[in-house]
Write a structure and sequence with these properties.
Helix content is 32%, strand content 27%. With 798 residues, the protein is α+β, with helices and mostly antiparallel strands. A six-stranded antiparallel sheet has the order 13-12-11-16-15-14, sandwiched between helices. A five-stranded antiparallel sheet has the order 1-4-5-2-3.
Length: 798
């Protein structure tokens, strides 16, 4: 009687190197076809101990079809059984059970077996419950367990790691569905110190009828290809992650984050730069021999860094000449070495900080790369790998990191130049803006300018407070589109233009009209692409700018204002109620031929007027209406001073990350006391001139300004006479005493007087020349009713 073989579990047939090549007696049956004798060979072959099998039916040794030996763990053996009857004196029949190699075994079968055993990929077979049935030599060597110890156990019962958990899930799924799966895992076997990348095929083992009996797994180590792919991905990732901010420390930290956190290229990375780079200057060409002092720009590691093992960011450290960084600075070439290299050992002996890190984390590989731009070394990047984590740096790593650092060097040089230009623009901006509060009897002021954060740079926001005749004050705030030196220079030219136009005492809408003409017509003619350098013109014609101009009169307590595409101001009344001033928007400057409208409203004494640029209320997180609402709330909060209120507003409103600069001007209004004013209606009669002089002298005496009487009489006499002779009644004479003494004569004529050179024979033409010579300044302003001629004197009060 013969029982033929089925599928093979070679591990059951080859136990600890024993190979079944010849017939072996394994058992003897009793008369009831139960096992009566169990040999040592039988125990090795089938796994049962004598105590477990003796007395059990012989059929328990075979598969359901009775053709194949079944191991104790359920696997099938590649052998056939031969049953030989034994002579017996009783009526019971006994059989001798022996194993005979199956047909087809021999040299070819051995070759097939050796091929499976000696394959470099990891091969293993699991049952449908993911219990291990067999594994080849590569798997056993990597796992580090004797096969008999792990057979019948699931992978997660003797292996730890997310990769093995995923493999077990896929084995179970394939055993259930019968569909093959492919995946890539990253994990380490117990005897492997570092994780490897595995390409894993999980497939069902089916019989001829398509029934799944087990699950096969083939895992190929493709770590080299994986690392090459990661290196390419690192360079690709650098294109989007590095250089986003034009900031030296920010760019350096981007390199650290990319190589430590994102790609796990190194366990610790530091970037050290020459101090000139932080100031925006280009360092000297070098070489930097001997000990070199560098400032720490950025650093980071995969583990928390003990304070005594690294420098603080911003700290200056002198690197010895033996250090990898010192050698980089001296010869401009990268340094690659291991922790036991003589040069590295000497460096760690001389430099306590890296030595403490190396002892704490077991550094085994060091790579230092110079950072070079425009042929000049800016500093160096240091990369460390620690024991038990990554392979030592190799030539491929060096090639990739040199390309990466070269890109970083370009970004750092751009950041350095941006820092240099930003410093110039900021200095220019601050030199053109008012320094500190403007002292004026009509208003109390406070202001702030905050340059944009990040890569936006200094913009063209500005503000100004312009003293005007008649104790009035001009208030202006503007915004030039763009950033950098060009925007700051354009801002300066616009500010000068506004001061010039304000000096001729134009109404706000007229001033903006003239300013718009200047911007529109000062650019080069023709196509901008064919024009000469716009910087040669006074104001580039292709700029975008907004502006708001207001005039506050403390005598009448009114404010007239107009805006050119600029945010409307906010008025906070004496009761603390804040509102946005209703004011026509007007077009931005530079469009040309579009009208501007002005508005006038009464400002109660003690009110607060806030002028600002759009950077204070615009945000990516909310719209302009919400920004205005928040600003009104901030301005309505009681504060001890305008300076404190400025800080409160900026703290609550401005976000540097929004990338726009901010100008803020706060004005607390005052009204002129009635006792500081004197005003008379005069008829158009030459005889009234003497009466006007008398009234003037009397009022100056009341004010204690008798010493100004002589000049003021001459001014009043000349201005009133001109109004009577050349103007149209009614005529008004007004005296205003504040820091200066102002004499104003108004009439209903729009004809402006002007200085002229009188001939010897002329009877007139010398009056205005005397006024100009005797007073500090004089001028004319036009009103809706006509014009006002004014003259100011400096007065000295006790």
């Amino acid at each position: 009687m013969h029982r033929t073989s089925g599928p093979v579990d070679r591990r059951a047939r080859q136990r600890d190197g024993a190979h079944v090549d010849e017939s072996v007696t394994i058992a003897v049956t009793d008369g009831n076809a139960c096992v009566a004798y169990w040999s040592r060979e039988a125990q090795e072959l089938l796994g049962y101990t004598p105590a477990e099998i003796i007395g059990r039916p012989l059929d328990d040794l075979f598969s359901d079809d009775g053709a194949t030996f079944r191991h104790r763990d359920g696997s099938l053996l590649d052998a056939r059984a031969h049953l030989s009857p034994l002579l017996s004196t009783t009526q019971q029949q006994h059989f001798l059970v022996t194993t005979v190699p199956s047909p087809g075994t021999g040299k070819l079968q051995d070759l097939m077996w050796w091929m499976l055993e000696q394959q470099s990929p990891s091969l293993s077979i699991y049952d449908r419950e993911a219990r291990l049935l067999w594994a080849n030599e590569a798997t056993r060597r990597a796992v580090g367990f004797v096969q008999s110890e792990v057979r019948g156990r699931r992978p997660t019962e003797f292996l730890r790691g997310a990769g093995f958990e995923e493999a077990e899930r896929r084995i179970l799924r394939v055993g259930e569905t019968g569909e093959p799966e492919y995946t890539e895992l990253f994990d380490a076997f117990p005897r492997e110190p570092r994780a490897h990348a595995w390409a894993v095929d999980v497939f069902p083992l089916k019989d001829a009828n398509g029934r799944v009996h087990a699950v096969g797994l083939v895992a190929s180590d493709y770590s080299e290809q994986h690392h090459s792919r990661e290196r390419m991905a690192l360079l690709s990732e650098a294109r989007t992650r590095i250089g986003a901010s034009l900031d030296v420390t920010g760019t350096s930290q981007e390199l650290v984050d990319l190589t430590v956190t994102v790609s796990r290229f190194a366990d610790f990375v530091s970037v050290d730069l020459l101090d000139d780079v932080f100031r925006g200057a280009l360092p000297g060409p070098g070489p930097h021999t001997g000990p070199v002092s560098l400032r720490r720009a950025a650093q980071g590691g995969t583990c928390p860094l003990p304070p005594n093992t690294v420098l603080g960011v911003g700290a200056i450290h002198t690197h010895p000449q033996s250090s990898p960084i010192g050698r980089c600075q001296a010869n401009g070439r990268p340094v690659l070495g291991g922790a036991k290299d003589p040069d590295i050992v000497r460096w760690l002996a001389e430099d306590p900080a890296p030595a403490a890190y190396a002892r704490a984390f077991g550094t085994h590989s060091v790579l230092a790369v110079p950072i070079r731009a425009q042929g000049v070394i800016l500093g160096a990047a240091l990369f460390l790998r620690d024991s038990g984590s990554l392979d030592p740096f190799g030539p491929d790593d060096l090639t990739v990191i040199e390309d990466l650092v070269a890109r970083v060097a370009v970004c750092l040089d751009n950041a350095r130049r941006f820092t240099h230009e930003r410093g110039i623009a900021l200095a220019l901006q601050r030199s053109l803006l008012p320094r500190g509060p403007t002292l004026h009897p009509a208003v109390e002021t406070a202001s702030r300018y905050v340059p944009a954060g990040g890569s936006a740079g200094v913009g063209g926001d500005w503000f100004d407070v312009i003293p005007l005749p008649g104790a009035r004050v001009g208030l202006v705030v503007g915004d030039v589109v763009g950033h950098g030196i060009s925007a700051s220079a354009t801002m300066g030219r616009l500010r000068t233009a506004v001061r010039t136009l304000a000096d001729i005492d134009l109404a706000p809408d007229e001033l903006l009209t003239h300013l718009d003409d200047i911007v529109t017509h000062s650019g080069p003619p023709g196509d901008i692409d064919d024009a000469s350098d716009p910087s040669e013109s006074e104001i580039p014609g292709d700029i975008g700018a907004t502006c708001l101009y207001a005039v506050y009169d403390p005598v009448s307590g009114t404010c007239s204002l107009a805006r050119a595409g600029h945010p409307a101001p906010i008025l906070v009344g004496s009761d603390g109620t804040a509102r946005v001033v209703d004011l026509p928007a007007g077009p931005p400057l530079g469009l040309g031929s579009l009208p501007f409208e002005s508005a006038e409203f009464t400002v109660p004494e003690g009110s607060l007027l806030a002028l600002f640029t759009d950077g204070l209320i615009e945000s990516r997180r909310h719209d302009l209406d919400e920004g205005n609402r928040r600003l009104c709330q901030a301005l309505a909060r009681p504060q001890p001073s305008l300076e404190a209120l400025c800080d409160t507003v900026l703290d609550s409103q401005h976000r540097a990350a929004d990338g726009d600069d901010v100008a803020l001007l706060l004005i607390r209004t005052r009204t002129l006391r009635p006792e500081s004013l004197a005003s008379w209606e005069l008829p158009s009669d030459p005889a009234i001139v003497s009466e006007a002089r008398k009234r003037t002298c009397d009022r100056l005496t009341e004010w204690g300004l008798e010493e100004a009487s002589f000049i003021t009489e001459l001014v009043v006499s000349e201005l009133v006479t001109n109004a009577i002779r050349y103007g149209t009644g009614p005529i008004r004479l007004r005296l205003i005493k504040d820091q200066t003494l102002t004499c104003e004569v108004s009439d209903c004529s729009s004809t402006s007087p002007h200085l002229r050179r009188a001939r010897l024979s002329d009877e007139g033409g010398r009056g205005l020349l005397l006024v100009a010579q005797l007073t500090e300044r004089w001028g004319t302003r036009h009103t809706r009713a006509g014009k006002t001629i004014w003259a100011e004197q400096v007065i000295h009060t006790a």
